[in-house]
Fold this protein.
Amino acid sequence: MKKKKNILFICKYNRFRSRVAEAYFNKINKNKLINVKSAGIIKGFLPLDKAQVRTAKSYGIFIKGKPKSVSSKMLSETDEIIIVANDVPKGIFKFKNRYIQKIHVWKVPDVLRGNDILGDKKIIEIIMKKVEGLIKELKKLKRTNPR
C-alpha cells in the first residue's frame, strides 16, 4: 500500500494566499495519494474578504470557511511545507537548527487592503502557476522514484 504525501500550504493568516493554493491544487490534482491543507501562522479572526472570494471564484477557485492556524498536530502530519507568502519566515519551522519538514518558499506578496481586484487577480495567477509547477514536479518525482 502506498503512503499518502501530506503537503501544508502556509501564509500569514490563512485568509487568501494559502487558501487559493489549497483550493486550486485540489481542483487540478489527479493524484489521490497527495493530500493538501492550508493554515496561517497567526490565528486570524477576520472573516474571508468577500471581494477576494469573488475574484477567486471567477477563476473557478472556491475558498470558504474560517481561517485556520497551524497546529503542532498539523505539522506532525505534514511531509512538506510550502510557504505561499513573502511575509512568513522560513526559520520558524526549525527545531534544533534543523527544518522539521522539507520546505519550499514561493514568496507570493500579500495584497494591500482596499479591495484591489487587479492585485488579487495577479496574486491568484502567480499561485496558479506555482501550483501547476508543483504538480508537474510531483509527477516527475513519482516517475523517477517508483515504490
Notes: The first helix runs from residue 17 to 28. The beta strands are 5-11, 34-40, 80-83, 94-95, 98-99, 102-105.
